[in-house]
Specification:
Blueprint (H helix, E strand, L loop, with lengths): L1 H6 L1 H25 L5 E5 L3 E8 L12 H26 L5 H24 L2 E9 L2 E6 L1 H23 L8
Antiparallel strand pairs: 1-2, 2-3, 3-4
Helix pairs in contact: 2-4, 3-4, 4-5
Length: about 170
């Protein structure tokens, strides 16, 4: 039943819209309610609520570029990536396994959420600070978590597809 529901384009778009709304609402709340660079423990020694504005991409890569270069570059790459992923998903979704279809339902709203931030604010609002005591790992947001979970779902889907593929006689 869940497999058919996810395969329904309407349900997939509903979940994507809901996830995108969750991402945008959480970022809007953080921008209003949490002072920039303020940090509050959510799970002591593991996760803090820390408001940062990321000018770059993962781990602030490319953040040092001037706005005149950085914004068009990141917006352009994001638009092309969202367009290519959407096209691939819509064209091939009928033949995708459940996990692979789920991957796109997670990745696309995450990518669009960060694209919206870059287009509107010039930065991406991050706020989940993952650390272990004094060792800091990264600060991300709902969109980043969706993208990461989507990548994991895609990998699981590919392993499942490989596992289920027909075997040639004789094991070759």
């Amino acid at each position: 039943m869940a497999s058919r529901a996810l395969k329904s384009l309407g349900w997939s778009l509903f979940w994507m819209a809901l996830l995108l709304a969750l991402d945008q609402a959480s970022k809007a709340w953080v921008r209003v309610a949490v002072p920039l660079n303020d940090s509050t423990p959510l799970i002591p020694h593991l996760i803090n609520l820390t408001h940062v504005e990321n000018r770059g991409v993962s781990f602030s890569f490319l953040a040092g570029l001037s706005d005149a270069v950085r914004l068009p570059l990141l917006l352009g790459i994001s638009v092309v990536a969202v367009g290519a992923l959407s096209w691939f998903w819509l064209r091939h979704r009928a033949g995708l396994g459940w996990f692979t279809d789920l991957a796109f339902v997670l990745i696309l709203p995450g990518a669009v959420g960060n694209l919206i931030d870059r287009a509107v604010y010039g930065t991406v609002t991050d706020f989940f600070h993952f650390h272990f005591y004094d060792v800091s790992f990264f600060v991300n947001n709902v969109a980043d978590i969706l993208i990461s979970a989507g990548v994991v779902a895609y990998c699981v889907g590919q392993v499942v597809a490989w596992w289920r593929r027909p075997q040639a006689p004789g094991g070759a």
